[in-house]
Amino acid sequence: MLNLVMNKEAVKLIRDNRREVLERWHSHVLSFFPGKMQSATPIAQALDDGLGNILDSFGTTPETLGNALAGVVRILAVQNFPPSRAMSLFFELKSILQKIAPGTSYKRQIKQKDWDEFQTGMEHLTLEAFDSYMAHREKIYQLKVEESKRQTFMMQRGAKA
Questions:
Q1: How far apart are CA 70 and CA 119, in angstroms?
Q2: Are 65 and 50 in contact (CB under 8 A)?
Q3: What is the pLDDT of residues 1-41, one digit of tens each?
């Protein structure tokens, strides 16, 4: 189960700058897709909602954060890009927060120890996301194998008839 330690200053930074963080993060994730994906598409909207849920779940229960994480990871797992690219979105979130903090009063409030704690928490979050991503990918491949077996069975059955 997800055990993310998130200090109060980092959670406050995320909550106070939620709109800007979400816009930057969403834009980064949409860059994964070929061409320019419009914000109004169902996938883009689901990602926006999911990323927002992740931001809102920082500082809450591990179950809430895990559910929010699963929503985004499930979408990424069915896409045709490598796991490393999918998981890079969590490194981008760290980068976004580090860029936003100097323009706020939080830079003085968030000590290096707290940033280190936040970074460690984000690393744990990324590992949890990777586990979830791989579980979803495994399920997809299992479904493909089962479908292939069904098709083979039906072809054999048709050939005998």
A1: 20
A2: no
A3: 555 656 788 888 899 999 999 999 999 999 888 777 766 78
Q: How far is CA 15 from CA 20, 53, 85, 87, 97, in A?
A: 10, 12, 26, 22, 11
* Cβ–Cβ < 8 Å for 125, 4: yes
4, 65 Cβ separation under 8 angstroms: yes
Confidence of residue 107 (pLDDT cuts 50, 70, 90): low
Give the Cβ contact number of residue 55 at 10 Å: 19
Query: Would the CA dihedral through 127, 25, 72, 87 be positive or negative?
Result: negative
> Are the C-beta atoms of residues 118 and 10 closer than 8 Å to each other?
yes
The predicted-structure confidence for 39-55, as pLDDT tens digits, reads as follows 678 888 999 999 999 99
What percentage of the chain has pLDDT greater than the value 70? Answer: 88
